[in-house]
Specification:
It is a single chain. This protein has 178 residues and is α+β, with helices and mostly antiparallel strands. It folds into two domains: 40 residues, no CATH class; 97 residues, no CATH class. Helices cover 48% and strands 19% of the residues. The chain is built from six helices and six strands, in the order E-E-E-E-H-H-H-E-E-H-H-H. The strands form three sheets. Strands 1-2 form a two-stranded antiparallel ribbon.
Amino acid sequence: MSACNNCGKSILFGGRKIDRYRYCGTACANRHPLLRAAEQVPAHVVQQYAEQWRAGACPQCKKTAGPIDVYAQHRVHSFVLMTQWSTRRKVSCRRCGRRSQLAGTLYSAALGWWGFPWGLVITPIQIARNIAGICRAHPARPSADFERVVRLQLAQKLRQNEQQTQSEQPMPPFSAQR
């Protein structure tokens, strides 16, 4: 089983393949040029910007409560024979990340058990993943997920700058032939 190179979802059937990359659908495949551009950003530049952005304000609460990183919230909800589970990743400070993980734990504890058989199997797993995230010590370095977010944002800015410089170049004069 392969995973989408953009969002990380598992691909059982179908998907799209571009070059050596696999994508779960059209929306992720449309980001292929951005992912290719992100690979070109040097590692030392990513590290420099990651350290700067970690020291900045939290995108969620707008406070400088500590270093920001990517935090994962795991959720599950089910009803009789239908069970759905997901992982949502957000860039935030540790405090906001823990709140999100606590909310995912409560959501799963209330709505996860009601499906058979997967609700009974997946709910304790998702709750344990959230609790492990809440108890995990804050890393001294930026996580790989955060570095990936930084890399993608840098690549997007570079592409926007390139497009601006191309649009600012003088156009050749229009000559009408009669």
